[in-house]
Amino acid sequence: MDNLFVLILFLAGVGALVGAATNYMAIKMLFRPYKPIYFMKWRLPLTPGLIPKRRDVLAVQLGKTVSDYLLTPDTIKKKFLSDDVRNSVLQFAQSKVEQEIFLNEKTLKDWLKVAGFSHLPKTVEGKIDVIIFNQFENMKHTLSTKKIRELLPKDLEAVVDQKVPEAVEQILKKGEDYFLSPEGSLTIKNMLDDFLSSKGSIGGMIQMFVGDSASLVEKVQRELVKFLQAPGTSALLNRIFTAEWEKIKDRPAMDFMHDINFDTIVANIQSYAKHELAIDDRLNKTIQDYWPQGNDWAKDELLPALMNKVFKEAESKIEDVLKRLNLAEVVREQVDSFPIAKLEELVLGIISRELRMITWLGGIIGGIVGVVQAVIVFVTN
Fold first, then answer.
1. Which of 10, 58, 326, 362 has the largest count of CB atoms under 10 Å?
2. Half-sphere exposure (CA, 13 Å, Cβ side) for 147?
3. What is the DSSP letter of 54?
4. What are the residue ranges of helices labelled H in the chain?
5. Is residue 374 within 8 Å of residue 4, measured between CB atoms?
């Protein structure tokens, strides 16, 4: 009986050791050796390990599995484009927009600085100066090279032409009213006195015959009024005014503007424009100051519409995107380039407990086989 016990103990120990060692070696040979081992010209069998030897096949199969079963268009739509994900993204976007834009105390100038456009206010003012200067230069060139006739709109020219006879009538009427007024009478008297006094003795003789110049005023008034009321006077003035107006229309407008200091005008307009624009003051306000309802609009209208459009576009393009990505090839390349030692460490790190159990299981089975062998040997002997 003692011999049986010793035999069982011995064979069970040997069986357990062989079983555990066999399983341990089998597990190790999945990865090792990493490279083939040669004896002279012959490659030793089972080198390299199973996974290094079949890594290319593993890479292809893994890539195919990922593209065909794991990251399919339906899977992505279900997991990443679901209503829950959409609502979560929308809430996050609404929160960020509200906090970072509308409730932020940053002024428009601060935002420009963040975007790298801190020089923009000065640039805009410079552009305004250039635009005003160029417009005045263009205007001066136009006024210098074009006749008034070319600058006047046709309808306005016709109106002005019609106003010439009216102006003549107004002048004649004003002249008539003036010479019949006390002020006009005094003017006529003064003119007669100056005329007679300028003629010396002849003027004195005339005064002796006609008496005081006041007696001539009424006669001169009547003659002047007759002259102003005569049709020939109106026709003469019409011809003169019309001829002069035609001459004016044939001259460049700049001929009448030599005394105008355009540089001062340009500088004043530039200063006025920049003062009215007040770019610095306007940029020292927040987005909320200019757009109080912007937050509600962005949260309730813009972002929901934008999210719907983005997710719809993503759903319609996801299949094409996956085809363009060629996930099977990407996975294959990554697996091919992944170091075997790192892959072994990764796998063993995940299933090390299970592999230890397999090793122990091999030992247990080997031990049981050893016990059975011991019993058979003892019985047969």
1. 362
2. 10
3. T
4. 2-28, 50-53, 55-65, 73-80, 83-97, 108-114, 120-145, 148-151, 154-180, 182-198, 201-210, 214-229, 231-249, 262-277, 279-283, 287-290, 294-297, 303-325, 327-337, 340-380
5. yes
Token duo for residue 290? 């200019």
Amino acid type, 311: F
What is the rounded CA–CA span in Å between residue 377 and residue 381?
A: 6
DSSP assignment of 308-323, as one string? Answer: HHHHHHHHHHHHHHHH
* Helix (H) / strand (E) containing 39: strand 38-39
Q: Which of 47-51, 195-199, 221-225, 301-305 has the highest mean pLDDT?
A: 301-305
Instruction: Kindly report, residue by residue over 14-61, the tens digit of the pLDDT.
Output: 888 888 888 888 777 777 777 777 777 887 777 777 777 777 787 788
Query: Is-contact 20 360, C-beta < 8 A?
Result: yes
Angstrom distance (rounded) from CA 116 to CA 108: 12
Q: What is the pLDDT of residues 245-291, one digit of tens each?
A: 888 888 888 888 877 888 888 999 999 998 888 888 888 888 888 88
Sign of CA dihedral 293, 295, 296, 301: positive
Helices (H), 71-147: 73-80, 83-97, 108-114, 120-145
